[in-house]
């Protein structure tokens, strides 16, 4: 689809396409044209022009999401283009904006908002090189540190030290960039570029380092906290975190796998869980909670009932919920507000079929995303599933990988899915009849790829044909066998793999040492 451009935007493209001419002429450009020229430069990947536009930015704020989003001059949203050339030019231009020798009275820029950048799987930029959230964290931290060193060593205009720009960013910290980010946060007061962390993600960090850096981020500003892979946070550490640090604006919380494990609960653990529930109730903005792969059997009510604000997103995938947990969710005040729900890894038909459909009916008017992976949904349940999903007219995403459904059942389900007007993304399982007879579900990782690939391709074509014939080519249907795309994991997978190998090696050494002692 070709996006229409206004004459103003076409003129802006023509202006910035000659980088040398554009850079020389910026001094004569009206201030209100800078946003238009920035988007045109970003579209054409004119790194040098982007740098100079930011260096000479004449306005009070610089908001990437708004600048690259849909505008009257050019409706295409470019905020999902994490082009390395453009973003690096942007950030180095910001550094040079501080160092620019023009009068400090000319420098109006006070707020830079980088939070509107979206990391997606498919990139359309010509350079094909992206700068993800981790790399943006790394570069901004380095530029802040370099800027301070330069200001201390060079003879700068005294007005340079009066420059103060708040840079709003979603930080992503791992062991590899930890020291650099810590240094930038420690020196925030004396640096003209002041990192303001709005969202924080942590992977591959020791608890000690996580607790240290989270205090430096100014938690009072934090809206989103993700503690994900290889941060060994358990329930008592979470209680300690909430006791020591307040998160008054926190809207979204993601906890690592196995934060909770009720199978080894003591009376003291029950009290700890109660305390965590109370602390979360003080987070009056909290509407998104993700705690996958914890064992929460029979404790959902204790954890969620204290909350005063209804949840809009809940991920309790693989949490071993029982009927009492599902009954609480179905009858709680959260049910009518859930826009995103993940119940993967629960045998819904066997454990609580009617209760699940009660929950679905309560959230049907607002539900946008539903994930039911590895839920033992079979052919006999498809008609009931269709009845349950029919009122979900706002559903945009439906993921149900890993369920034992036949090709015929999938075709029946897809014919119905065409009727959901807002649907954009479907992740469907490899049909059961593509696997060898006798395959057991959930399918283990070793067997997940052992299916008839040619037959699968034929079925996938038929399913896409159903969408096409219903004029629903706006719906993307796929089978990501090893989970949906995760930009953060994709960007840091080398570090993640190295950490896992190191952990495995250490475990093996401990086992060998223990075995030798026994011998």
Automatic annotation (TrEMBL):
GO CC, one annotated term: cytoplasm
Alphabetical list of SUPFAM superfamilies matching this protein:
RNI-like (SSF52047)
Stretches of the chain forming a coiled coil according to its record: none
Is Repeat set as a keyword in this record? yes
Task: Could you list this entry's UniProt keywords, alphabetically sorted.
Answer: Leucine-rich repeat, Repeat
- Top-level taxon in the UniProt lineage: Eukaryota
InterPro entries in the cross-refs: LRR_dom_sf, LRRC14/PRAME
Signal sequence, start to end: none
Regarding protein family, the annotation reads: Belongs to the PRAME family. LRRC14 subfamily.
Protein known as: Leucine-rich repeat-containing protein 14B
* Species assigned in the record: Calcarius ornatus
